[in-house]
Design brief:
- The chain has 10 helices and 10 strands.
- The chain is an alpha+beta fold.
- It has 2 domains: 229 residues, no CATH class; 138 residues, Alpha-Beta Complex (Sulfite Oxidase, Chain A, domain 2).
- The protein has a 5-stranded mixed beta sheet.
- Helix 1 crosses helix 3, helix 1 runs antiparallel to helix 5 and helix 3 packs across helix 6.
- The longest helix has 33 residues.
- It is elongated, with a radius of gyration of 26 Å.
- The mean pLDDT is 93.
- The structure holds ligand MTE and molybdenum atom.
- The site of the ligand Nc1nc2c(c(=O)[nH]1)N[C@H]1C(S)=C(S)[C@@H](COP(=O)(O)O)O[C@H]1N2 has 20 residues, from loops.
- It holds the Pfam family Oxidored_molyb.
- This is Oxidoreductase molybdopterin-binding domain-containing protein.
Length: 417
């Protein structure tokens, strides 16, 4: 028997032996994340604004305590009609695709987690604390985002506040981190090779490197291949057409939509929302209120009003979207005119006959009501709406997130928001 090998704890630099680690690998992964996370942050803020959380009454507001963090809000436009489809498709697809890069980046710096002593000075302690917020924030944002996309809102309602406040904590730590590390990152990218362990000021280069099993280029290739695989199995849910078949990782929605004009993704089925066929039968009436007036309309009466057809997609916060569907029905501004609000109609509060659930009501801004493409849709693709797509009537608004396209509408109150 040979002498017992001495145990090397992870707090010892000798424990970390991969010859791949070094400032250059970390810097390369770092710049990819710098670009990617910046775009994630911007598209995330856009998605937040697209919900119109600042409308009066707080109907759409899942983060009433946002305070100054609501500074970025603006009136979300109604064009181009594919706007939310694009921004949210980018947000979700990019978030998924960056997962291997994030994991590789964390792997590349993991020896630093075990640095001893834990804090050499107050400055060092503060830096490590900010890293806790950085790494914790990154993992939190990616995990909550992926759970929301994959599991159909595991935390309905609260997802928005978790992901929103988490994003601000994370981005604060991220900005500090970038400011501290950018000079060293640029230097590492300029120098073609890593310093040896003795000259290394980053603590990343292995002091006792193991023989290489893969080159650094090979390792980056693996990360890239992982991202590419995730891209082709995710992006199809937003690109549509032939690509939809490649979207193996996309969520499958509340029900099988079947084929025909109503054969597109269903988010929450009628059964799932507790909407029964007898609530939507002959007795169903739409109540339109506003300007001190009230009108009730049956579906037959709605069908006798001027009908318009628009080609618009449904684009969900989860990242999936449909191709443009041919919706037809009554213009929202014509409904406002029915209660006398034909001059510059105001925003509207839309309520579903669904009794409970976070998405049973939504508010639309005046610019959305006024757009001639905004409809109370009665039909899609030349057929009556299916119960799962919102029969007898649902909202469809250009460029808006799917959540504002309320299904099984029962009441519309103009001027309530
Ligand atoms: N009443 C009601 N309307 C609703 C929802 C809901 O749960 N209840 N879900 C919304 C969400 S989040 C989306 S993405 C769209 C999806 O519409 P679809 O199922 O017809 O594709 O409906 C919206 N309208
Ligand atoms: Mo949605």
């Amino acid at each position: 028997m040979g002498a017992a090998r001495r145990f090397t704890p992870p707090t010892s630099p000798a424990f970390w032996r991969s010859p791949l680690r070094g400032p250059r690998l970390t810097a390369l992964l770092g710049v990819v994340l710098l670009a990617g996370i910046t775009l994630l942050f911007v598209t995330g803020l856009l998605s937040y604004a697209a919900y119109n959380p600042d409308l009066a009454g707080g109907v759409n507001d899942k983060t009433p305590g946002k305070g100054l963090l609501g500074f970025s809000l603006f009136a979300w436009p109604t064009g181009p009609h594919w706007l939310y489809r694009l921004t949210q498709g980018v947000h979700v697809t990019l978030g998924v695709v960056l997962v291997p890069v994030l994991l590789a980046k964390l792997w590349s710096v993991i020896p630093k987690l075990f640095t001893m002593p834990p804090a050499r000075s107050i400055g060092h302690a503060l830096e490590r604390l900010s890293l806790l917020l950085l790494v914790g924030g990154a993992l939190f944002e990616f995990v909550t985002g992926l759970l929301n996309v994959q599991l159909d809102y595991v935390f309905p309602g609260s997802f928005y506040s978790l992901h929103f406040y988490g994003a601000w904590v994370f981005i604060g730590a991220f900005v500090v981190h970038v400011a501290l590390k950018l000079p060293r990152t640029v230097q590492a990218l300029r120098e073609r090779t890593d310093p040896d362990a003795a000259a290394d000021d980053t603590g990343l280069v292995a002091v006792r490197p193991a023989p290489p099993t893969v080159s650094r280029r090979g390792a980056l290739g693996l990360v890239g291949a992982g991202s590419l695989l995730l891209f082709v199995t995710t992006a199809g849910q937003s690109i549509g057409g032939w690509w939809r078949r490649t979207a193996l990782l996309a969520p499958h929605g509340g029900a099988d939509p079947g084929s025909g004009p109503n054969g597109f993704q269903i988010n929450k089925s009628a059964a799932g929302a507790g909407v029964r066929a007898r609530d939507t039968g002959e007795d169903w009436q739409l109540m339109v209120e506003g300007g001190g007036r009230r009108v009730r309309l049956s579906r037959a009466e709605l069908l006798r009003l001027p009908q318009y057809e628009v080609a618009l997609p449904i684009a969900c916060v989860e990242g999936w979207s449909t191709e443009d569907q041919r919706w037809s029905g009554v213009r929202l501004r014509d409904l406002a005119a029915l209660v006398g609000l034909d001059e510059a109609p105001p925003g509207v509060l839309v309520e579903s006959l669904q009794l409970s659930g976070a998405f049973r009501r939504a508010a639309l801004r005046d610019n959305q009501v006024r757009d001639p493409r905004s409809l109370l849709a009665l039909r899609v693709g030349g057929a009556d709406l299916s119960l799962d797509h919102g029969y007898p009537a649902r909202i469809i608004v250009p460029a808006a997130p799917g959540v504002l396209n309320t299904k099984w509408v029962a009441r519309m109150t103009f001027g309530a928001v």
